[in-house]
Amino acid sequence: MSRRKPNNMRARLERSAGALLRQNKACIVDASAPDIQVMLNYVNLRQIVTRQVANALCDMAHHWTVYVSAICQNGSERWAKSVEYELAGIHVITKLPDLFEQPVNDVIASCNPKHVIGHAWIAIPDSVTLEEEHAHRIYEAVGAWSQVQQVSA
Question: Which long-range contacts (CB under 8 A, 24 or more apart) does 90-93 make?
């Protein structure tokens, strides 16, 4: 007679957390201004304030898709030069900024320094591809272009 597989509570919690994040379309948006770090629904651009979603996003390790941008402005013209990639392996959100520090510097270095006003990134705990227009709407929703222009020494 076969024996029943034992209950694995950790695996159940990880599956339910992943399902909750996919259902809420959760992402983290961070702009270089220190006050702007928001947990958003990346489809309807509303801020997520649910504790369960925050715990699932921040406490569990996930496979991340990251969209890194240099935020540029010249007068009234606004644009972002961006790179999207998936991180290898699974990571906790607190370790992410260290993992893509070099890509942020590369994107900023490829722009005209007179136009760069900051940088921003969108981290989605799933394999999702963002279109450039959709990323711009996300940046508009969090106020990424309202940053003070960085002064280069």
Answer: 90/61, 90/62, 90/63, 91/61, 91/62, 91/64, 92/58, 92/59, 92/60, 92/61, 93/28, 93/57, 93/58, 93/62, 93/123
Strands of 77-86's sheet in order across: 37-41, 26-31, 116-124, 65-74, 77-86
State the Cα torsion 12-14-15-19 to the nearest 10°. Answer: 140
Spell out the alpha helix ranges (H) of 25-100: 51-59, 96-99
Burial of 126 (0-12, 13-18, 19+ CB in 10 A): middle
Q: What is the pLDDT of residue 26?
A: 92
Other CB atoms within a 10 A radius of the CB of residue 22 amount to 12
Q: What is the pLDDT of residue 52?
A: 92
Stated pTM of the model: 0.84
What tens digit of pLDDT does each residue of 105-149 get?
Answer: 899 899 888 888 888 899 999 888 889 999 999 988 888 877 554
Q: Which helix (H) or strand (E) holds 67?
A: strand 65-74
